Amino acid sequence: MTYAARPAIPTELDLEAFSHLVYAMRHRVSSPRPGNHASRSPGPFGRFQGLSLLAGDNDARRIDLKASITDPFEEIRIRRFAQPSNGTVWILVDLSGSMGFEGTVSRHAVAVALAAGLAEAVRRAGDKVGIVAACGDAAPVFELQPTRRASAPLEVATSLAAVQPSGAGLEGLAKCAASLPASPSLVFVVSDFAAPLGEIGTLLDALALHDVRPLVVADPDAEMPNRRFGLVHLDDLEGAGRGLIFLRPLLLATWRRERTARRQALFRLFVQTGCQPLQVTGQIDLRSLSEDLLSGTVAA
Amino acid sequence: MPALAFDHPVLLLALPFALLPLVVSVLRRSPHPNIAAAVPDRPSRLLSIALPILGLLALACLILALAGLHRTDQVVFREGRGAHLMILIDRSSSMESTFANRRPDGAEESKANAARRLLTDFIERRAHDRVGVAMFSTAPLQAVPLTDRHEIVKSAIATMDFPGLAQTNVGRGLALAAGAFGSETAAASRAILLVSDGAGVISREVQAQLRDTIGRRPVNLYWLFLRTDGAKGIFDVPASGEHDTPQTRPERHLHLFLQTLGVPYRAFEADSPDAVREAIAEIDRLEARPLAYEEEVPRLDLERYAYLGAAIALALLVLAKSFETPFVERARTLPPLRRSGA
């Protein structure tokens, strides 16, 4: 079943709001290009990495006078630094059928805004951004190789907004994940993670090399209907079936318990695979997203 | 076996449409991101089975009703215990008087009245009998042919209350009653119950006709003779020197004639309502043999039941529809980005 019109493309103003998002990479990046992330690359400034002989390093600008004077062998010592470098950030966007759900917000619109906004934030931080979007188990519908192009975020927004969420599961995304470059990088996974835990596990396994930040797009207000009583005919957006539900407070309480249990299981899986999940509930609140990015923890 | 038929069978071609509710839900579909998280409970599962079936029933009933479903008229074979009984009632005016040959007053009822009451009781006891009523005075009259609808029989017996005519033409009456048994009565017991308070002379032609009819279709004959006080009995042998002719002793000669017919015959002489009751009880006991008979069942229109079924199913569906709710009810979808201060 298809649902909802195409979401509005985020404006430049919307993207601008993301530009101050701060993120850190867990591992040392390796790039000759100065940036914001701790790296192993030697440079003229940055993290002090010890002294070496002028004869070896040949960089007279960083002569450490004090070390040279006090050196018992009267060698001239220079300081070595590992300069902050820039890295590559990948954004994987799940556009399976369930992302077409519209509750308080359109999940598709949130995913598009998140992908484009994060791309803008990455671009502003001087890193390269690469984007892959996949619908269910099909081949990726959108791929953007790592780039610093200024127009990239808007391209991402336009392209992703044009895709109709369809398909089921995360298999397509898992395949893309396996084909990412082998060098460790930061990976944001934008999804509602409605797929079975096994499939999510497969995706996270494929991303084991990388620093993964799952962005759980949730809409609890909408997933728990605000009507307490009535008959509703549900139709799964990923074609998993349909069913008639007799909504009653008792049934909703059961659902709420099951939902909590599933959420806990999902976050346990994230913890087991070493991911730091981020939660976007309803509208994107950049302040809390920033805080979560900085603290690296979200209460399950 | 009920035979069903349709007035417009071509409309039955629409019957496959009744399967539509199994495919299309009556409720509006609400998209859900993950139906695995929306586990239905038992009432939900029951309703999800019941609603399509109700839809199917509603459509099927409507189509059947429009096609004019009915049960055809038919003949049903039934079996009871009893007899084919023709009650032949004397409507001569003497039946109006009491057993004591007086005008009926409050204390004593007339012979007709007593016979009517006791015969009505008799009919009520014999649920499986097929009973017919014939009457005679000057001329015989078939009131009710053999039937198992006892209401009409009782109504016919009730007319005994109305004043009768002068004469007692018993021969023609007997001929009519004997001829009332059709071929379908062959298997079971046939009986004629003659209720009279007198008799008449039966002419030779009528006698021959009676012998012929009864010879072809033997019947059990019962004569309930309502004897008036002072009248000669049917069993009384006349004293010597007394005239013994059909003209002077018509009852005795009718009795003798009936005995010669060669069929089981019993006469009961009753000179009071109690004696009538005993006589009827005796007949009741004698005439109880297995009885197979066929009954005509008229056409029965089943449309109204089909419409009723459709109406009930539709009412339940409307009730369900009135409880329909969208899964998510939002006037407006919010923009994806929350703007603080905006």
From TrEMBL, chain A:
Which SUPFAM superfamilies does the record cross-reference, listed alphabetically? vWA-like
**Database matches in Gene3D superfamilies:** von Willebrand factor, type A domain (3.40.50.410)
Which residue ranges does the record assign to the DUF58 domain? 56-239
Q: Which top-rank group of organisms is this from? A: Bacteria
Q: Which Pfam family is one of this chain's hits?
A: DUF58
Put simply, this protein is called DUF58 domain-containing protein
From TrEMBL, chain B:
The lineage's top-level taxon is: Bacteria
Q: InterPro entries given for it?
A: VWF_A (IPR002035), vWFA_dom_sf (IPR036465)
Q: Which residues form the VWFA domain?
A: 84-283
List the Pfam families hit by this protein, alphabetically: VWA_2 (PF13519)
| Keyword tags | Membrane, Transmembrane, Transmembrane helix
| Stretches that traverse the bilayer | 49-69
What's the protein here called? Answer: VWA domain-containing protein
Does the keyword Plastid belong to this entry? no
